[in-house]
Amino acid sequence: MTERIPQTSSTSRRNLLFGAAAVSAGAFLTACTSNENNASAGTGKQQAGGVDDKPGKKVTIGFAGPQADHGWLNAINQNAKERAKQYEDVTLEITEGSNDTAQQIGQIETLINKKVDVLVILPADGKALTQVGLKAMRAGIPVVNLDRVFASQQAYRCWVGGDNYGMGLNAGHYIGEQLKDKKNAKVVELAGIDNLELTRQRTQGFDDALKNYPNIKKVGRQAAEFTVESGQSKMAGLLQAHPDFDALWNHDDDQGVGAERAIEQAGRDGFLMVGGAGSRKVMDTIKAGNSVLKATVLYPPTMSASAIDLARALGQGKGVSGMAELEIPASITLYSAVVTKDNVDDYLPTGFN
C-alpha cells in the first residue's frame, strides 16, 4: 500500500470527522443534495443512504489515480468507476493511472485541456503533483484531492481521505480490551514502509492506545513493504525472535496474506491478529472464525466513490444533505472502524479483492 496523506496525527484528528457516527465510508457521505432514492455504493452491492441519483446538470469528471498495483489501489479505481455509472448526468474521464509522477502530471494536464468540469486526483506523490493541482484550480476546475494530500490547500477544493493515526489508535484499543485482564501481555507489530508518514502515524496511534493498558508491552516490531512476500518474510522474523506473544497488529491486509502464511508454516497460534485496510479475504476469514485473524481496521477504498459524489455536487453547484452549509466541506476524514466477527456482515459489501 503506497503512501497516503502526510498529515500529522493532530491535524488528521482536527479534520472534519464527517461520518464518525457511521461505521464505514460507504455510509460516511450520506448524500450530495437531498433525494428520494437510494443508490448502491461504490462496489455496486451495498446501499449508501441518501445518494441523489435523480438526473441533474450534466457533469464531466476527470479521474486520475496511481497505478493499481495493490489490492487497495485497484479497489479505489473500481469504486470510482462503479459510482460514476450510477449517475445518468455524470461522464467519467479516467486515466490509466501511473506511479510515475511526470506521467501522471501529463495525464492530468490532458484532462485540464479537455476542460472537464471537476477533477478527482489521487496523486502518486502529493507534494510532487501540487503544481498541477494548482494549475487546475486556476483554470476554474475544482479539484477533489483523494487521500494523499497536496502540499498546498490552494491546489484543491476538498480533501477526502483516511485516518492513519486512527487506524493505529483503534487497533491498539481493540487489542487492549482483549488483553486487559492478562498479566504481562505481549504484543508485536508488523508495520508498513517505515519512510512513509502514514506508517509512522499508524505506529504512533497504536503506541498511544497501548499507554492506556499498563499490563501490555510491545516487545517487537518489523517493517514490511505492503506486499505478500515482504509480509511473509518479516513475519517469519518476528515469529523467530518472539516465541511467545499475545497479539499481532499488521498494518496492511495485502502483506497480511504473507504474514498468515508464515504463521501457518511455523505452526503458531495462541495469539490474536488484527489487520488493516479491510480486504474481502480478511473479512471472510474473520467471519469463518478458524484463524488467529480476529479483526481488521478499515482504511476504506470506498472513499473514491464518495469523491465522485462530491465532484458531482461541485459540478452541479450543490451541497451535502444533512448539513446546514450551502457548500461541501473543505476536508473529510474517514473513520477507521474495527471489523470483528460480531459486525463483519455489515462490512462485507465494502471488502475489496
UniProtKB/TrEMBL annotation:
SUPFAM superfamilies: Periplasmic binding protein-like I
Chief location: other
Residue ranges occupied by any Periplasmic binding protein domain in the UniProt entry: 61-318
Classification via PROSITE patterns: PROKAR_LIPOPROTEIN (PS51257), TAT (PS51318)
Subcellular compartments: Cell envelope
Keywords: Signal
Pfam families membership: Peripla_BP_4
Family the UniProt entry places it in: Belongs to the bacterial solute-binding protein 2 family.
Protein name from the UniProt record: Substrate-binding domain-containing protein
